[in-house]
């Protein structure tokens, strides 16, 4: 299988990543809302535990629409996808250290980690758009940590909005690609 074929199958299976980013964005927005209106602890717990549920919720959402929800066994991109997925929990101690130093760095630190995590998606999906998302999450986390040091959830609100906006940006691209394939 050619790399471009494998990437196309990733895009087709996950609808250009739109469903996963929407699920992720909604979790970020829920965590930000709790962090803003309830307690910092609740916001942190929702993002931490919700983050673990992103892939299963994405698979569930895809299956509810009649899609298979995952790449087939033996797909050449499965190993890369798993390696990318584990980068976030492996860097969680850095987020924990930043948060223990300054509670308001929680969302900016997660935003930086998640932004970096999206950069290999450029290859996984064959989509330059993930570099834009990664750069915005990374840069937004750093900028908010520096410019809004007294805000607990500003980077969370920004991250959630970016993820939802990304889903809305790439989903129509999937539909156009599917329509073009159907006319061939």
Summarize the structure.
This protein is an all-alpha fold. The chain has helices at 3-13, 18-37, 40-52, 54-64, 78-85, 87-101, 106-118, 121-125, 129-147, 154-183. It has one domain.
Number of domains: 1
Fraction of residues in helix: over 70%
How much strand? under 5%
Estimated structural class: mainly alpha
Q: Estimate the global geometry from the Cα principal axes.
A: elongated
Characterize the main sheet: none
How are the SSEs ordered, and which strands pair?
Elements: H1 3-13, H2 18-37, H3 40-52, H4 54-64, H5 78-85, H6 87-101, H7 106-118, H8 121-125, H9 129-147, H10 154-183
Helix pairs in contact: 2-3, 2-4, 2-10, 6-7, 7-9, 9-10
Kindly describe this structure.
The chain has 10 helices and no strands. It has 184 residues and is mainly α. It has one domain. Helix 2 (18-37) runs antiparallel to helix 3 (40-52). The chain is elongated, with a radius of gyration of 17 Å. 35% of the residues are buried. The mean pLDDT is 95.
Short descriptors:
elongated; mainly alpha; 0% strand; 10 helices; 184 residues
